[in-house]
Every structure is written in C-alpha cells, then in structure tokens.
Design a protein that fits this description.
The protein is an alpha+beta fold. The protein contains 16 helices and 39 strands. The strands form nine sheets. The chain has a six-stranded mixed beta sheet, sandwiched between helices. Strand 10 (206-209) and strand 11 (212-217) form a beta hairpin.
C-alpha cells in the first residue's frame, strides 16, 4: 500500500475511506496472531458517535449512510465490546428528536462533557465521525510529503451540520468547520491513553457519482472558487485549548509533527481518495464503517488493532481492484508514537462474546422477535430472502434456540423473526445470533443500471436489457443497489475519475460497463467509438451472464461459520511466490493471503492447490475454480468427466492435489498483471446436478480429462445448479423447519453446515 508517515494523520483529519464498492469477500480474512494480547480491565467505556446526513439547509449535498454508521458502531460497542447504552452519546440527524443535532456547538460540547470531563486513566474512549470532510487554510502548516497531490497549506476538517454556511471576511471565505488541529487538542485533553478515533469522511471528491455519494463538501468550494479559512471562533477555540494545556504554538507544532495525540486513529483513505456513502441492498452506510464493524462482529477472539487494520486494508484494496482501472483505496492507520498501541486489541478491549451475524434487541413473544443484522454480509443483505434461520447463542456459545427471519425493515438492519425451536422465556435482548440456513433467491439476476447521460437512447437500452432473462434493470441513483452500469465513456467521466494517470482508459465515445461509481469496470468491455446502443447490449450479453455467475459465487462465500475442517495450500512451481497457506474451519478463514498481504506469482508460473480433508469421520466433495483477472471462470477440478462425482470425493484424512499428476496438464498463470481469485468448494454432499452439468460441458467439448476453461454464457448456468443442489440438501437435512410452505417458492436454502468456500486472491506480476 502507499506509505504514509504517522505524524501526518491529523493534518488531514476528516479524510476517510474511498472504497468504490463493497468487497466481494467482505473482510472475512481471519486470524489469531495477536489474539493473546489483552487490554487491562477498565472501569468505564465511553463513546461519542457523530453522524450527519442532512446538509440540505446549508447548500451541501446530503448523505444517506452516516446515521446508519452511528447505529452500526453503537450496537457493535454494546453487544460485542460491553459498552453500556447510557455511556454512548449519539449526535446525529434524528427525526424523533431524541438525539442532539450534529451542529458544531453540539459536537464540541458533547466531546467536552462526555469524553474529556468524564474519562479517567484506564478508561476506554471511542470517537467516531461520519459525514462530509473538507479543507481549510492551516495557519501553521506541517510538511506533508507522503501524498503528492496534498496541499500542505491546508488542514482537513469535519463539516458539522451547520458547517456549510459560508461568510466573507478580510481573509476570504470563512467556514465554521472543526479542524484536524482542534481534534488533536481535544484528543490530547482526554485523560486516558486508551482512545480510538475513527473517521469516515474525505475531502478528495464531491457529490454523487453513478450510484454512490462521496463524503466531501467540495460543492461548497466549487461554488466560491476560493480557498476557505477557519472561522475566528475556531481559531479562538484552539487558542483557549493551547492555554489550557500550557502550550505555545511552537510546542503544538512539535507535537503535531511527532504523531497523533493519543491511542489509535483509523481513517478510511489516503488524502487523494474518496470516501463512499454506499448502498448495500436497500441499506445505506459508509463502506468503511460497514466493513470495519462487520469484520469485528465476525471475530471469535480479540485481535490487535494492527491486525484489524491489515485485514481491512487488504479487503478495501481487493475490492478497489475489481474496477480494473488502477483504483487505489487504502485506509489510514496510526498509533501514538513511542507506544505499542498497534499490538493492543482493537478499541483496547478484549471480547468474550462469540462471533455473530446478529443480536436480539427486543422479544415481544414467540412470533415477534426483533434483532439487528450488524454482522450479516453485504451479499446476503443484497440478495438473501426471508427464511434465513439463526441459532441463538448463550454465554457459553451453545445454541439454545432457533429463529427464522420473517422480514427485514426496509432501509435498516432491523429484522423480525419467529421462534421455531427452543423456549421463548430463555430469550432476551443482547443474545447473539449465528446464521445456520441462509435464504437465497431461486433465480438470481444481475442488477444493471443505465447511465442517464446516454440521453435519448436511455429507453431503448432499458427495453433491450429487459429482454435478457438474467438481467434486472434498475435506476441509477443512491437509493438503489446495482451490480454495474451500462453507459458511454465521456470526457466528464474521465475528469471525474481523479486518477493519478489516465492511461489505459476506454476511448471517449465508446460504450461499456462501469462499476457503481462510474469507474470503467474493465477497459476490454468497451467497444468501438460511436457503437450503436443495441449493438453494445448484444455484445455484452455474455459478459452479463459472466458477471451473474460471479454473483452466484459471491452468494456461496457468505457461508461463514461452517464447521468443515479443511486446509488449502496454494503454490507456484516457479518458486517466486513460495508457499502460502491458510487453515480453515469454514469460509471464515477463506483466504490464501498472508498477514496483510496478497501473494504474488510471476506470469507463466504453474499454479497448484492442495486440499486436505482434516475431518476424522466425514468424507468431503471438492471442486476448485479460478476466476481470472478478466472475470472468466475456469473449473480446474473435478477433472475426470466420465464419473465426476467419484473423483470429487476426498476421503476423511486424505488430501488432493489440483491439478493431479495423472491428469497430465498444468494450470499456468497468464497475463502480465491482474488479480485472479481461487475458490475451493468443499461440501458434505455431492453437488450432483452441478457435476452432471459439468459432465455435459466436457462431453460437448469432447474432453474426457482436464479443466473446463472459459465457460461461455450457456455453460455458466452450471453455477445455478450449485444453488439447486444446496437447496435440495438443505431441505433434506432440515425438513421440518425449512419446508417449501414455510419459505415460499422464490427462496432457495443454503444450510451453512453443508459447504465451506475457501477463497483467496493472488497477484500476477510480470
């Protein structure tokens, strides 16, 4: 990742993650390298959570996910890290009027009264901000050389609800933002070292791009066309704190140069990257906050802050690569100089609660149980149906009951369910839930939007897309969830990308597919200049099917928590990448990555995957797939097509090497660069329909032994058969609780004890 000097974090406080979209595999890379590091017991845990959606009255574009960020953090802190609800202060746009509005005065007052006035040595403090960020003139700038596009004369800010109001003075345009300088002083004044600052905002972009909004108040700057200056109130505020701390300006400058004031700080992107206010199904949130909190819901033991950051960094950058256009997304992590805070558990707290996808928030009766889906994957939120079954866990991590989800409250992570086994009197708020059986759509479709910039061709394109049975046409706006956007590459889009270089972009006027933020999905998906819209849709039909196939594989990777004991080892014959391995007890440890890195292999290396069945009394069935850098799917195993089911079997305690020596073929990594993904599907039951489908493909190609590479659009239907197999096996194992009458015909079921999907990304280098 790009390097950044620690001492510069709060120079651009308010910068945040610029994830283009959610990670395909979320951030479910798990490990316990630092799990043994425990924080001391603390007498109190205090949190101040700020979220600002409503900027309309001040002339800045409003956001959609910042208030949800507050809830994501609040429930995580309460139910996984033991914060008391009365010790969490929320400052956000609350239509019910039960929270302080996030004005400048209220944010600073809450920081003073709740954190500074109350915290004592040894206490744990969390400050979280989600909202717009901006920049103002820094009266005493510090040198900043880690980001070449960053203007060292400016200081990053948090834009409060009333912060978009501008005024004119002798200095120029004045704004009442809260500067990074002020946040440094406030953080230093907290009388404990156990402070965590989380910032989900930025100042590198603005407005709405495609289907996502960017958390930067640049419209305000664009409107005035001038550098902004901090208000006199802000400068006087800083001077008062300097006096309170007994510092002069020179001392303040030295401290700022040394590093952050206290504890640990995590920002969501480097200074020239965008923080996305994203759409996850029908739920809006900051991509960074969602990924961070989801990851922490899933961890079985305490992890060091550095480990959490490494995993988050890996996930963010992995997803950014899916744009295939050199997007760089890197969260920022810093810790107080001359400390080992990076080795302390995240939030300076251990957790004794089990990993979970949800938590009960209220029990009315056996037919109405409310819960919060804070740990559910993005794929499940976007595609899962009602019928999902959760196990209720007690303090000993034992399942004591089962709840079936009956609905999810639109636009939120609140859900309702009913008890299908167990005693309702044993249920109470705070009990954690683990997914057991996931409800999935029987006929998943690719959600495709059309860029309104195509103008008069919009209706014709939507009509043509609607004729494709595996495509759903959806609007392009921040209130809808989609998988890709069809449109033309224009000069405006090129300018909006803000890339450090513009090589390798599609030609102006060509038509192709974009990611949800209008970044080209893949330059190879664009046709000739001025291609007709109908011709473009027909050219892209196979690609739509390929993208849908990848979505089906996404659905399988949501199966976290499978008890299958499997080990996968990935190696390359050239030896350039060495041997990289990960042990998995299910898809939670579903990566081949080392700590905080992606293994690199030279182009031309031969790839080999070793799968070991570590089960003592259970035979398993194995398939190995590769999604190459262009998105094409290869099936490496099974490779004996006369009887694929028999060859998919790996007996208990035995291992399998793919490709097998007797198959007399090698799988060679091709291309000069890219990030192929390797998936190992390990199931308790044979995926018979899928295997029969693979066998038919092999027969049509006259292949008796060997891999099935570059599946075409029709052949990709074999992945739908995987869902059919899982549905059949799930109903057979859980007949009474998952009957067709209970969940309906639109829902396929995926019992997560049936399948473990080990997945990982490698990097191909020249």
């Amino acid at each position: 990742m790009p390097s950044i000097k620690r001492r510069h974090f709060l120079q651009f406080a308010g910068s945040a993650m610029g994830a283009i979209a959610l990670s395909q595999f979320d951030i479910l890379r798990q490990g316990d390298r630092y799990a043994r590091v425990l924080a001391q017991e603390t007498p109190r845990k205090l949190a101040l959570l700020v979220g600002i959606n409503d900027y309309n009255s001040a002339g800045i574009s409003s956001l959609n996910g910042c208030v949800n960020d507050v809830y994501l953090q609040k429930y995580l802190l309460m139910y996984r890290f033991g914060f008391k609800e009365e010790d969490i202060v929320t400052v956000f746009d609350d239509p019910d009027g039960k929270s302080l509005l996030p004005t400048r005065a209220n944010i600073l007052q809450a920081f003073q009264e709740h954190l500074i006035d109350q915290a004592k040595p040894g206490d744990v403090v969390v400050f979280h901000y989600s909202g717009h960020g901006a920049q103002v003139d820094d009266p005493a700038p510090i040198t900043f050389d880690a980001c070449p596009t960053f203007d060292g004369k400016l200081n990053g800010t948090m834009v409060p609800r009333d912060g978009a109001v501008v005024s004119q003075s002798d200095r120029g345009v004045v704004v009442p933002d809260i500067m990074g300088r002020s946040l440094f002083l406030l953080t230093h004044a907290i009388d404990t070292d156990h402070v965590t600052v989380v910032l989900d905002s930025c100042f590198s972009g603005s407005g709405t791009r495609g289907n996502v909004a960017v958390r930067a108040a640049n419209p305000r700057i664009t409107r005035t066309g001038q550098t902004h200056f901090p208000s006199e109130e802000e400068l006087e505020f800083q001077q008062r704190w300097l006096s309170n701390l007994g510092w002069d300006e020179a001392q303040f400058q030295r401290y700022r140069m040394q590093g952050i004031a206290k504890g640990v700080a995590i920002g969501s992107a480097l200074c020239d990257q965008e923080a996305i206010d994203d759409r996850i199904g029908d739920f809006n949130a900051g991509t960074f906050t969602y990924l961070l909190t989801r990851y922490l819901w899933q961890q079985p033991t305490a992890q060091a802050a550095q480990t959490v950051y490494d995993r988050l960094d890996l996930s963010v950058q992995s997803r950014a690569r899916t744009s295939k256009n050199n997007h760089q997304q890197a969260p920022v992590f810093e810790y107080q100089p001359n400390t080992e805070n990076h080795l302390q558990p995240v939030y300076f707290l251990s957790t004794n609660t089990p990993p979970a996808e949800a938590v009960i928030t209220q029990v009315h009766n056996a037919e109405q149980i409310e819960f919060w889906l804070g740990g559910v994957s993005a794929q499940a939120l976007e595609r899962a149906e009602n019928g999902t079954i959760f196990a209720v866990l007690n303090a000993d991590r034992e399942a004591i009951a089962e709840i079936e989800q009956t609905r999810r409250v639109a636009g939120t992570l609140y859900a309702d369910g009913r008890l299908i086994s167990g005693d309702v009197t044993a249920l109470q708020a705070g009990l954690l839930l683990r997914e057991q059986v996931l409800g999935l759509p029987t006929n998943p479709k690719l959600k495709v939007g059309v860029d309104p910039a195509v103008g008069e061709d919009l209706e014709a394109i939507e009509t043509e897309l609607a004729s494709i049975s595996w495509v759903d046409v959806v609007p392009v706006n921040t209130q809808t969830s989609l998988d890709c956007i069809l449109g033309r590459f224009t000069e405006d889009i090129q300018l909006s990308l803000r890339q450090p270089h513009t090589t390798g972009l599609p030609p102006i006027g060509s038509m192709g597919l974009f990611s949800k933020d209008l970044s080209p999905l893949n330059v190879n998906l664009f046709g000739r200049v001025n291609e007709s819209t109908i011709a473009a849709v027909n050219r892209l039909r196979p690609r739509f099917k390929l993208l849908l196939a990848n979505q089906i594989l996404d659905l399988l990777t949501v199966g976290q928590g499978s008890p299958l004991a499997v080990k996968a080892t990935l190696s390359a014959s050239s030896g350039e990448g060495g041997v990289v391995e990960t042990i998995s007890r299910g898809a939670q440890e579903a990566g081949f990555e080392e700590e905080g890195s992606t293994p690199q292999f030279r182009s031309g290396s031969t790839l080999q995957v070793t799968v070991e069945n570590l089960e003592q009394d259970l035979d398993l069935y194995v398939s190995v797939l590769v999604i190459n850098a262009t998105g094409a799917i290869d099936i490496l195993y099974p490779s004996e097509w006369e009887d694929p089911e028999a060859f998919a079997l790996v007996e208990r305690g035995k291992s399998l090497v793919v490709p097998r020596p007797e198959d007399e073929f090698v799988y060679r990594i091709t291309g000069t660069s890219g990030f192929p993904e390797i998936l190992v599907l390990t199931s308790r039951e044979p995926l018979r329909n899928a295997l029969i489908g693979m066998q038919a493909i092999a027969e049509a190609r006259s292949i008796s032994r060997g891999p099935l590479g570059n599946l075409n659009a029709e052949e990709l239907d074999v992945l739908n058969l995987v869902l059919d197999d899982l549905d059949t096996a799930s109903r057979g194992q859980n007949n009474a609780r998952v009957t067709r009458e209970r969940v309906g015909d639109r829902t396929s079921l995926y019992d997560k004890e049936l399948l473990a999907v080990l997945s990982g990304t490698i990097e191909v280098i020249p």
